[in-house]
Amino acid sequence: MITIPIGALEVAMVQSGARVADTLGDTAEFARRVEDLGYRRLWYAEHHHSPAIGAFPPVVLTAHAAALTSSIRLGSGGVLAPNHAPIMLAEQFGTLAALHPGRIDLGIGRGPGTFDEPTARALRRGAGPTTDDEYRDDVAATLRFLVDEVALGPLPEPWLLASSTAGAALAAELGLPLAFAHHIRPDNTLAALDRYRAQFSPSRWCERPRVLVCVETVCAETQQEAARLAGPMDVVKAGLLKGRGDIPFPTPEEAAAHSFTAEEERALAGFRAQQAHGSPDFVAKQLADLVEVTRADELMLVTPVYALAARLRSYELVRRHAAPAV
Q1: Where is the Luciferase-like domain (predicted)?
Q2: Dihedral of CA 158/28/56/211: which sign?
Q3: pLDDT tens digit string along 3-40?
Q4: What is the C-alpha to C-alpha distance for residues 53 and 119, in angstroms, rounded to an integer?
Q5: What distance in Å separates the CA atoms of residue 45 and residue 238, rounded to the nearest whole number?
Q6: What secondary structure letter does DSSP report for 147?
Q7: How far apart are CA 105 and CA 187, in angstroms?
Q8: For the residues of 14-77, what is the DSSP string, one character each?
Q9: Which residues, including other chains, have CB under 8 Å from residue 19's CB and lie 6 or more apart?
Q10: Sign of CA dihedral 275, 277, 280, 285
Q11: CA distance 120 to 118
């Protein structure tokens, strides 16, 4: 059994044949249900110009969910620093923290949130990719503005999101809790966590290393049903392997009819082996093994499946079989 806290990452998948507005309705219901299930945190990811993922600003979804819930921690996982002025991030999340004391997290990441170069440049007013130094300065400025400029009272809890050793090193330098994207770069996880713990410097934000590991989790009554539910995201991932971010999120039936190349099958199988897909007992073991090997302080589950009911069922099964005391 897992005894550390577990949270949820909402990526707002837009179902094939559904309206984007329906996805927004699902995010509201999802927030209410994961709070009822006892999950610690619910974070929202920033994405842009994707047919598979809604372009819903994390700050807006956080505000909406905070009005619908009463206890679960809410925030960004993450808001992408290169796309925003640091003072605006500080004002937005500082305001949320003042309105909902003790419940707001500010998870900061680096990526563009899109695979489309014109969209990335539009988000950055024509600027190119941010450098390491620029990213560090943006994160540091956001933290400084939270304290020196906003000063509305209770502060949001800042986290640095990373999928590489470089991102983990920055979290260590700034003394921030680290949220590691095992669901994106599982091969980097252990080296990055080792570097973070070895180089960590205490700060006003965090006295000791704190690690949250995000893992893709698809739990169903049987292995076969979990594989069926994971099929649509496999199609999207296969597109990403080819550098394509324009793949819609298909139905499970459409995904079952999709033909993968042998190379795609090998890559997807290797990825799944490092995540938690399957029956309740299998998922419980996969999650427990991940906690043991990473020494994580918290887990966060991301469940990119087609229907809201199936997604919620996955979280219910994990709650019952893997973590009854989340």
Answers
A1: 18-293
A2: positive
A3: 999 999 998 888 777 777 888 899 999 999 999 999 99
A4: 15
A5: 21
A6: I
A7: 27
A8: -BTTS-HHHHHHHHHHHHHHHHHTT-SEEEE----S-SSB----HHHHHHHHHHH-SSSEEEEE
A9: none
A10: negative
A11: 5
